[in-house]
Amino acid sequence: MNHPEERPKIFGTGLIALDLVIGLDSEAPVHSWAGGTCGNVLTIMRYLGWDAYPIARMNGDPASQRVRADMAKWGVKLDFANCAPVGHTPIIIQQIKRARDGSPTHRFLWTCPHCGKRLPSYRPVTQHAVEDITLALPGSAVFFMDRLSRAALTLAAEAAQNGAVVLFEPSGKSDEKQFAEAMKIAHIVKYSDQRLSEAGGAMTASTATLLEIQTLGSQGLRYRHRLDGQISDWSICPAFPAPSIVDTCGSGDWCTAGILALGAKQGLLGLKKMDAQGLSKALRYGQALAAWNCAFEGARGGMYLVEPREFQNQINAIMNGRPVLRTVVRHESTEPSVACPACPPSTQHILSAS
């Protein structure tokens, strides 16, 4: 086992939220887990053996307390989770349902199902936090961002200068100028075809992009790279068959984490030395994690049900085309309930299915 000082480090900023997961069983308790793209990726990276440092503005409200407790349980480092000025932690309600054909689907709610008011939304870290975090970045292997702000871009550029791989996972183009700046910093750009048809010139002379990944849902992903200095053609990686499809939410986050775990543990220098075979191995590992995740409710539900050793056995089975025998050996207690912060105190409702 690696000593703590030998673990690769990842810093990340972006959407770190409280996920409230309402499963198919309406009688089952609502799960409250740390979530959001950045929150999921960093927590998964810790599960895979890295030291993970989320950068956020948690203010101590019930939602942030639950997120911090969940992340701390997995060993995530919370040194920079309450950067000033602090604010409410975003809350996202995920409802898992059945489509007309019987397949599972999900939708997200951004308003309280009881009072109708909007739940707390994402607010980026500010320049106020940059100085302290910058001092901690040397030695990190990866900097992850899925939301852009002046502070996020400043930190990403600093991490890159210190030898970290910068991965940018946009959900859209809310600010064209900042998006263009991010493309000049990021070494890996990963996006879903459901959110962006293309990343807008990732592979140009003015960008730092070495690897561009477009995920295609159940069809897998396609990618191109210039690790050898020349822009490659697009290559397709078909998805692994999922052992079971209960919920697809979070599979993209598992894919990201798997790619980083194998492809970026030596930082930027290691990524630049990677050959086509090593890149393919990292991508396939990420896809295997994504397929595995489909068997569980919630973006990281499997982490709470499967022991790490059994997890690795199941991933190996997926990658080798063998049946996955789902052995659930970990039993979790019900998480604390979280009340809607917008409901009047006298009628404050516990957030759950309506």
Automatic annotation (TrEMBL):
MF-aspect GO terms: kinase activity
Limits of the Carbohydrate kinase PfkB domain: 33-300
SUPFAM superfamilies reported for this sequence: Ribokinase-like (SSF53613)
Annotated signal peptide: none
Keywords attached to this entry: Kinase, Transferase
A matching Pfam family: PfkB
Source domain of life: Bacteria
PANTHER family named among the record's database cross-references: CARBOHYDRATE KINASE PFKB DOMAIN-CONTAINING PROTEIN, HEXOKINASE FAMILY MEMBER
Family: Belongs to the carbohydrate kinase PfkB family.
Protein name: Fructokinase
